[in-house]
Amino acid sequence: MHIVLPHDASLDGHLVDGVIGYLTLTTGLAFLAVLVFLLIAIVFHRERAGRTRAHHTHGNRPRDRALTFAVALVMFVAIDVTLVARTAGELSGRFWRYPDGDPNALRVEVTARQWSWTFRTAGPDGRFGTGDDVVTLGELDVPVGRPIYLKLRSRDVVHSLYLPSFRTKIDAIPGSTTRLWFQAQEAGRFEIGCAQHCGVSHYKMRGLLIARPEGEYHDWLARAETDSRLRGDAALPVAGEADGWDWETGR
Amino acid sequence: MTAAASTVPRRRELDRAVGLLIFLGATAMLFAALLLAYAILRAEAPVWPPAGTPPFPRGAAAANTVVLLAATLALRAARSTDRRWPALAAAALGAAFLVLQAALWRRLAATHLGPSAGALGDVFFALSAFHALHVLAGLVVLAATRARPARLLTIYWDFVLIVWIVIYVAVCLL
Amino acid sequence: MKARGVPVFLMLPLVLATAACRRPAGAPPPFTGPVTLGGRAIAPAALEHGREVYTHYCRPCHGDAGDGKGTSAAGLQTPPRDLRLGVYKFAAVPAGQLPRDADFVRTIRHGLHGTAMLAWDVPEAELDDLIQYIKYFAPRWRTESAGEAIVAAPDPWGGREAEAVERGKRVYHGLAQCAVACHPAYATKAEIYAFSKELTGMEVRQFRPDLYFAVAKDSDYGVKILPPDFTFNELRGGDTPEDIYRAIAAGIGGTAMPTWKNVLPDTDLWAMAHYVRSLVALRDSPEAGALEQRLRDQPAWSPPPPPDAGADTDGAGDAGP
Amino acid sequence: MTATDQSQGGDAGGDAGGPGGGPGDGLEEIPPEPAGFLRRHVFSTDHKVIGRQFLFLGLSFLAVGGVMAMLIRWQLARPGVPVPVVGGLLFGRAGGLISPAAYTALFTMHGTIMIFFAVTPILIGGFGNFCLPLLIGARDMAFPRLNLASFWTMAAATAVLTASFFVPLGPPQAGWTAYATLSTAIGAPGVGQTLWVVAIYLNGASSVMGAVNYITTVIRLRAPGMTYLRMPLTVWGFFLTSILNALFVPVLAAAMVLLFFDRVFGTQFFVAGTTVGAGGDPILYQHLFWLFGHPEVYILIIPAWGIVSDLLSFFARKPAFGYRVTVAALVGVVILSTVVYGHHMFTTGMSPLLGESFMVLTMIISVPTSLLFLNWLGTLWRGASRMTTPMLFCLGLVFTFGVGGLTGLYLADVVADMYLHDTYFVVGHFHLIMAAALLLASFAAIYFWFPKMFGRMMSEALGKWHFWPTFVSLNVVFMGQLLIGYAGMQRRLYDPSVYEFLRPLLPLNRFISRAAYVLGASQLIFVVNFFWSLFRGQKAPKNPWAVGTLEWTVASPPPHHNFDRIPVVVRGPHELGHPAARALGKDWLGQDEGPVRPSADNATDGSTDGSPPDGSTEGAA
C-alpha cells in the first residue's frame, strides 16, 4: 500500500507537512501515554479474585483536581499553544501574505463552474480584459519560481480549487471573490482537484497544472496568446460580470 | 385535599411557564437567525435598499402593526374580564392582521417588492410570512381554548407582537 | 403544549403542494404519449427517464431547454451545443446528416477533448433514454432519420506508418489543400508548391499571409469556429488514428470541414490520419518548437516563373530559383 | 395543557411524597394507565413507550444508513462494477451499478439519515426519553402530550424524507450539509431537495419540542433531594444537549426557512453567481448551517459523554472521578461549542483575523474535553472493573474518542486544514467521533438499559461477540479513512481513479471496504441478540448491574407511573465501592437508600458528595 503525501512541488508545502508531522508526533505521544494508562487500568484494575473492591474516591480532593488540571494544561500548552504560535507565524509570514504589490507575480483569474475550471491570465501586456488575454480550460500553465496569485469566482455552486502537490486549497464561491497564492518550485504536470462537492459529476472536475521553466513558459505564452486571439477569447464573459476583478485593493 | 387541589394546577402552571419560556427562547433564536441573515445581506449590499427598488409602503405596514397591537391589547383585556367579546375581538383582529398582511404581499408583488424581485422584497416576504405563521398558530390556540385565553397565551401573543415590531423597525423603517 | 405542534402540521400540506408545482422554465412539458424520433417510437416513460438523466449530467451546460444556455455555460470557451438545432459535430455519418445512436454514445462516453464536455459515466443502461431525450430537443428528429454510417475501411498502412505519414503530408498540403483557408500549414511554402504540383498538377502561386495559423470559420452554431492547430490544440473528437480518420472521412457537422469520404481514396484518408496523428504527437514537445522554428526561418519563397520554364521539376520543393 | 386533565382523576396518593417534604410531597397523583392498544403502544404519552418508539425508529434508520454506507464502500472498492445481490433491485435502471447520480444521493442520504434520523432518535429521543424521568425520579415528562407530538413530528419528518426517494429526479444530492447554491434551484432542481428541507425542518421541530420538554422536566420535576449536583451525568448530558438544541436547532431552522423560500418562492437569499440580480450570499448559508452544525456535533456527543461517564463509574465499581469537574467541563464545552463553528469554513477565504480567532477558540475547547477524558481515566484507575458488554463498549468509546479528538487538532489548525480540508481525513475524523463514538455509546446504552426497557437481559456472550468485530473493524475503517485523507483523497468522489495521484490508493480503499463489510455483518449479531433477548432473554431482575441510580429501584420494565412513591434522594449517583455499604453486604448505595451512617473511610476522602442523608431538601420550585 502506498500511503504518502503527494509529491511536494511547492515553495511552502513543507511548512504544511511540518505542521502535520509535528501534530502526528505530539498527539501520537499523548495518545500512547493514554493508551498505556488505559491498558494498565484495564488489565490490573479489573475485578478478579483478590480484587473485589474498588478504591473509593470521588476525585474531588484539591490534589486530584490539581493533578487533572495540571495534566490538561500541560497537554494544552505542549500541543495547542505551540501549534497556534507556529501556525500564526506561518500564516502571517507566508500563506496569508498575498503578493498584492509584487510585479513579478503571475496573476490568474479562475472561474469555476460545473464541472470545469477556466483560467485567464493577462497575457504579455500584463493587463486583463485586453485582446491578448490567455484563456485556458482545465489547464493552468505557470512558470516555475514565480508567485502565482489566483483570484477565484464561481458561476454556479461552491467549488474548491485543490492543489495536492502544493498542499493548499481555496473555495470558489458564487457572488464573491476568493484568493490564493502559491509558487511552483519545479517543472512538471500536477493535478488540480475540486474538493467541494459540486454536484453529480464533482469527481470529474479535474484540472491540470503545468509548471514550466521561465523560458518555456514564455514560448508557451506566446503560442497560447495567438491561439486565444484567433479564437476571440477576450470577448468571453468572465464570472465577475461587469464589475471586473479588483486586482488593486485586497479583495 | 383542598390545599392539594389548589397547588397542583399552580405547579402545572409553573411547569408550563418554564416550558413556554424555553420555547419562546428557541423561537427568538429562530427569528434572531433570520434577522442576522438580513443584517449580513444588508451589510454586504453596496447600497440599501438595492438600486432600483421602489419605496417601501411603510404606512400600510404600520397600519398592520397597529392592528396586531390592538389584538394584543384585546387579548390582555380578555384576561381581566369574564366577558367573551375582548377575546373574540382579539381573534378577529389577529385574523384581520393576517388578511392585511396577505393584501400587503399582493400589493408588494405588484410593485416589484415581492419575493424574487429583489433583496428587500425577499427579506420582507420571508420574515413577515414566517411571522404570520406564528400569528396563525396563536389564533389556532385561541380557537382551541374556545376564546378563553390562558395567561400563557397572552405571553406568546406579546412575543409575537414584539417580533413583529422588531421586523417592522428593522426591515421597513431602518 | 400540543398546540405548539400544530403550526408544523398545518404547514406540511401547504409545503408539499407548493414544492411540487415548480417546473424549470423552458423544459419540455411532461410526456404523455409516445414520440417518434428518428423513425423510432419512444415511450413516454423512457423520455421521462431520459429527462432525469439529462438533468443530472447535462443540464448545467446545455440548460433545461436544451439551448446550450445553462447556468454554467456562459463564458465557456467552446460553447455548449444548442441541442435544438439538430446539428452535431462529431458523428460517423456524412457531415450535415443526423448522427446514429452509436455516435451519441461515443460523444457522451468519451467526451469532446479540450472542452467542458467530459467523458460522462452515464451507465450504459441509461444511455438510450438519455439519447432519445436529447433528440427530442431538435424538431429535425421527428421527420428525419439518422444518416448512413461511414464505415472505416481497414487501415491499408499497417506496418508502414512512416510511409503513411510521408504520403499524408503530401495529401494534406498538396491534394486536400487543408491549409489553403482553414488549417495551419506544417510545411514550407516550397514544399506545398511542390506537393500541389505533384498531386494535382496545379501551381499554388499565392499563400495567405498567416499560412501557419488556423483561420476561424463561420459555422451553423452562430459562432466562429477555429480549426485545430494539431501541434497545439486537443482534437475534440479524439486523437487516435481511427478518430482522426472518422473526422476526416465524415467531416464535422455544421462547420466548414466537409465530408472527404468518396472524395479522396481511403488510402489517402488514412494517410492523412496518420500524418495528423504524427503532428498531434509533437504536442508539448521540443520537436513542435523546432518545427515552428524551421517554418518561421524558411527562406523567402517566391513562385517559380510561369509554366513555360519547364514542366517536369518535380524535385524537392526547395529547388527554388 | 393537558397533563392536568389526566391527573385530575387520580387519587392524591397520600403517602407518595415520603418524609423529605418538597414538591413531590402528597401532590403527585399516580396517573391512570390508559386503556386500548393505540393509546398504550402507538399514541402513548408515556415517556417509556415514546423512548422505545424513538429507539426502534432510530435503529431502523441506522440499518438503512448502514446499508447505504456499504453501497458507498462498494463503489469506492469497485468503481462502476454492478452491485452484487441487491444491485438489480436497487439500481435496476442503471443496470445494477451505482451511477454517479445514485452515488451522490447515497452519500447525501447516508449523512442525513445517520445524523438526523438515526443517532438523534436513538440517543436523544430514545434514551433521553426513557432515562430522564426515571433517573431524576419523576413519573413522566413535564409535557407528555408534547412528547407525543415530538415523536410523531419526527415520524412525519422520516415520512417526508422517505418520500424524496420516489419523486422525479430522485432523492437530494447536495450532500448532508446541503451547501447553497448547490441546494438551491441552480444545483438541485428536483422536488427531492425541497422535501429534504422540509424533513430537516420537521426534524428540528421535533428536537426543539423534545428540548423544551427535557429542560422543563429537569428543572421542575426532579425528585426531592435530587439537586443538580446529584443528577447522574447521563441526565447532565441530556440536559445540556437540550439547551444546545433549544438554542441552535432554530438557527438551522432559519437556514431551512430561507432555503425553502429560495427554492419555492424564488427568493435569492443564498443565490449568487451568473443568475443573480441582487446579492444573495451562499456563504451566509454556511454561517447559519455551521452556527448550528458545530453545536450539533456536541448535541450528539454530549449525551454519549454523560452516559459513558456514568457507565464507566458503574462498571469500575467506583465513583465517577471528579464529578464536579466533569460537569464543569461539559458546561464549558457547551459554551465554547457555540463560538468555534468557523473552523468548518477556513477555506472560504475568511478574513485572517476571523480565521485565527476561530483557530484559537477551537484549540481552547480541547481543555474541557481533555479534563473530561482525564476524569474517565481517573475513574478507571484503581477500580475493580467488570468487563461486561456495556463496559466494553464504553472502553471502546474511550479509545476511539481519543483518536477522533486528537485528529480534530489537525483540522483546527488553519495551515494543516488548508491541505486536509474536504479530504477523507475530515471524513475519518468525524466518523471516529460521530459514528464510532456514538455507535459505541448507543450500543453501551442499549446493552445497559435493555433490561430496564424490555424486562429481559441481553445475552452477554453474544454481546461480546458483537463488540470485538465491531470495535476492530470500526477502527480499521475510520483510521483507514484518515490515512486515505492524509494521502490527499477528496471527499465525495464517485470514482477517485479520475485522479492519477489517487490511483495507488485503490488497494487501501478495497481493504477499508472489506473492513466496512465486516462492520456491517457484525451488526447482524446485535440484531439477533436484540430480538432473541426481546422474546427469549432471561428475565431481568430489578437491579441487574447493582448500581444505585433511581431507575434500578423500580421493576424491570417499570410500571406505567414509574414510581409508586416519588423517591427522596439522599446522595449522588455513583456511590459504588462505598465503605459504608460493606455493612449491608454489597458495594453500592442507592441514591434514595435510607440513612447510612457516614463512615470514617468516607470522611478521610474529603468527599463532599456523600452529603448527609437529609442534608439537602432543595425543592425543584
List the helices and strands and how they pair.
The complex is a heterotetramer of chains A (about 250), B (about 170), C (about 325) and D (about 625).
Chain A: H1 13-44, H2 62-95, E1 106-113, E2 116-121, E3 134-137, E4 139-143, E5 147-154, E6 159-163, E7 168-172, E8 178-183, E9 188-194, E10 207-212, H3 214-231
Parallel strand pairs in A: 1-5, 4-10
Antiparallel strand pairs in A: 1-2, 2-3, 5-8, 6-7, 6-9, 9-10
Helix pairs in contact in A: 1-2
Chain C: H1 6-20, E1 35-37, E2 40-42, H2 44-57, H3 59-62, H4 101-110, H5 124-136, H6 140-143, H7 161-175, H8 189-200, H9 241-250, H10 266-280, H11 286-296
Antiparallel strand pairs in C: 1-2
Chain D: H1 3-8, H2 37-42, H3 47-77, H4 87-90, H5 100-136, H6 144-163, H7 191-220, H8 233-264, H9 282-316, H10 323-337, H11 352-364, H12 366-380, H13 389-412, H14 414-420, H15 424-454, H16 460-486, H17 506-536, H18 600-604
What are the main properties of this structure?
heterotetramer; B: 174 residues; mainly alpha; Four Helix Bundle (Hemerythrin (Met), subunit A); 5 helices; D: 621 residues; 59% helix; disordered N terminus; disordered C terminus
Q: What does the model show?
A:
The complex is a heterotetramer of chains A (251), B (174), C (321) and D (621). Chain B has 174 residues and is an all-alpha fold. Chain B has helices spanning 2-44, 58-79, 85-110, 119-144, 151-173. Chain B contains 5 helices and no strands. In chain B, helix 2 runs antiparallel to helix 3, helix 3 (85-110) runs antiparallel to helix 4 and helix 4 (119-144) runs antiparallel to helix 5 (151-173). The model of chain B has no long low-confidence stretch (mean pLDDT 85). Chain C has 321 residues and is an all-alpha fold. Chain C has a two-stranded antiparallel sheet with strand order 1-2. In chain C, a hairpin with a 2-residue loop joins strand 1 and strand 2 (40-42). By secondary structure, chain D is mainly α. Chain D has a domain at 387-540. Chain D starts with a helix and ends in a 17-residue tail after the last helix. The interface between A and D is large, with 94 and 115 residues.
Biggest interface found: A-D, 94 and 115 residues
What count of structural domains of chain A?
Answer: 2
Domain count of chain B = 1
| Helix segment tally of chain B | 5
Instruction: Give the end-to-end Cα distance of chain A, rounded to a whole number of Å.
Output: 43 Å
Which architecture of chain B per CATH?
Up-down Bundle
Give me the secondary-structure category of chain A: alpha+beta
Give, in order, the helices and strands of chain B.
HHHHH
- At the fold tier of CATH, the topology name of the largest domain in chain A is Immunoglobulin-like
By DSSP, the count of extended strands of chain B is: 0
**CATH homologous superfamily of chain B?**
Cytochrome c oxidase, subunit III, four-helix bundle
Query: How big a fraction of the residues of chain A is strand?
Result: 15-25%
Largest β-sheet summary of chain B: none
The stretches of 5 or more residues of chain B where confidence is low (pLDDT under 50) are none
Would you give the CATH topology of chain B? Four Helix Bundle (Hemerythrin (Met), subunit A)
User: Largest sheet of chain A, described in full?
Assistant: 5 strands, mixed
Overall pLDDT of chain A: 88
Bin the strand percentage of chain B: under 5%
